[in-house]
Specification:
nine-stranded mixed beta sheet; Transpos_IS1380; alpha+beta
Length: 401
Amino acid sequence: MHDPGKILLDVALAVALGGDCLADVGMLRAEPALFGPVASDPTVSRLIDTLADGGQKALNAIRSARSHVRRHVWKLAGQDATGSVTVDLDGVLVIAHSDKEDTAATWKKTFGHHPLMGFVDHGIGGSGEPVAGLLRPGNAGSNTAADHITAAQLALAQLPTSYRRGRSTLIRTDSAGGTHEFVTWLAQRGRWLSYSVGMTITAAIHQAVLKVPSAAWTPAVEPDRQIRDGAWVAELTGSMLDGWPKGMRLVVRKERPHLGAQLRITDADGMRITCFATNTTGRPVAELELRHRLRARAEDRIRAARATGLRNLPLHDTAQNRVWLEIVQIALDLLAWMPMLALQGKARLWEPRRLRLRLLGAAGQLVTAGRRQILRLARHWPWTHLLTSALERLDQLPNPG
């Protein structure tokens, strides 16, 4: 009686609206005039078990459907015309309060899982989309090259084909991705794939930083292209590049620590030292450093994911929680695509909590008059005009068929 795809989408919609377990689909079931027939809790549980038993085949089917819709949404939003895309990879610690399969002690002395996530960064004018979710035990290493390669493959498979054939695609990671195996794998993809990978400050890099002449340091810049106070960047050359892929560039930044910050053993001359590797050429090092520093927006994506079903993994078996992780990604997709297609201005940057409070949770009444369904919204609600204009934009989109 219930289509499996509709059931899965209903659960994802419930998670997008703030749910954090399968039973929260009941909030949709309470409004059949709006959401149509919604499966019962036992039917939902049986579907999750079936998908979990399907293993990789079921996960591939879900991911293929998401990739297909993403291609359509990007075309409607004009995202496909930008010519480049940035994917950030980062690990997330998910705390478990009971003994679930593959839970373990984490490197932060907590207990749970350590999934590796990938997010498309739409820059200062938009939010981000999840394109990879690799569920791992809590004791999984932060710098495991095989996991980063798998997550990168999942992320690239979610992008439209044009971004894997000649378009400019950038993979960014923190120092957890700065391994020989992962950087070599990235370098072997060809010129269409660039990387910007954080690197650990080794003794050789530390000594090389101390030898950089003053004239070689360039002031770092802010996103508005103004000079960043107390920060400089430079490119390193020499033996520390031996053994790394050909064409790799090593860029370091030194910056005066913030008040109260404690210096580390890898810092030099009272300056905080950071380093990253890239294969991008033809651009100033200050611009490359700014591009890499903007990877911090991945923390915003992780915060949004925690507020959208990733605060915990509610099921016991790992196979079931892999399906849940896909549901979370569908929910995050919906919360990213709606602003891309329907909102304008600063509203496109609203995170899930604000979207729920101001738009998705707005009170309304669905009535039927003259054989038409009419949605009545409160005139005094501060964001009613934003909601109605968003609905009008969505209504004007072509039917995907």
